[in-house]
């Protein structure tokens, strides 16, 4: 292909109410060749449980190794379900910065992500303000084009 790859794995729907209309960095992250981290529901009220299970089944069917990271569960603002995800972490030279939400699974998720990146320390940082603006740490760390250079 013109983009340099010969296969695409479609993981299905994005998270409920995802501000990015389902960008994959809120659902799944490649953590090594052929290895993808995906959330797994750990509480009965997790609004994205079906989405996680479907994405994991699709990834496995494509021959990928799935590493499960606990989901934060239901995170809401009033009556609005927020698309909170630990998957929207950012990888730096020394750290992996993981969004946390004051949820029961925060520490467990940071520990699970820490195990995926030997040589880097995973740290959790509260991310409700970033989430309210749309996205997460990975989204916020991406390049912005200089639109004045037209």
Short description:
By secondary structure, the protein is an alpha/beta fold. It contains four helices and eight strands.
Can you describe what's shown?
The protein is of the alpha/beta class and 150 residues long. It is built from four helices and eight strands. The strands form three sheets. The chain has a three-stranded mixed beta sheet with strand order 1-2-3, sandwiched between helices. A three-stranded mixed beta sheet has the order 6-7-8. The protein has a two-stranded antiparallel ribbon with strand order 4-5.
Give the helix/strand layout.
Layout: E1 29-32, E2 35-40, H1 49-61, E3 65-70, E4 76-77, E5 80-81, E6 90-91, E7 95-100, H2 106-116, E8 121-126, H3 128-133, H4 137-140
Parallel strand pairs: 2-3, 7-8
Antiparallel strand pairs: 1-2, 4-5, 6-7
- pLDDT < 50 runs, ≥5 residues: none
Proportion of residues in extended strands: 15-25%
Helix/strand/pairing category: alpha/beta
**Portion in helices:** 10-25%
Elements, N to C (H/E): EEHEEEEEHEHH
Helix count, DSSP H or I runs of 4 or more residues: 4
Euclidean distance between termini CA atoms: 28 Å
Q: Output mean pLDDT.
A: 86
Main β sheet profile? 3 strands, mixed
Key words describing this protein structure:
three-stranded mixed β-sheet, 150 residues
């Amino acid at each position: 292909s013109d983009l340099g790859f010969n296969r695409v794995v479609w993981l299905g729907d994005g998270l409920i109410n995802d501000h990015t209309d389902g960008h994959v960095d809120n659902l799944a992250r490649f953590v090594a060749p052929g290895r993808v981290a995906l959330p797994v529901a750990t509480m009965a009220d997790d609004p994205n449980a079906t989405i996680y299970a479907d994405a994991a089944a699709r990834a496995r069917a494509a021959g990928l190794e799935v590493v499960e990271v606990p989901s934060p569960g239901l995170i809401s603002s009033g009556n609005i379900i927020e698309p909170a995800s630990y998957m929207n972490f950012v990888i730096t030279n020394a750290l992996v910065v993981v969004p946390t939400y004051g949820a029961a699974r925060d520490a467990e998720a940071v520990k699970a992500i820490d195990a995926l990146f030997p040589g880097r320390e995973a740290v959790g940082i509260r991310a409700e303000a970033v989430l309210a603006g749309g996205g997460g740490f990975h989204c916020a760390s991406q390049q912005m084009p200089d639109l004045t250079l037209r």
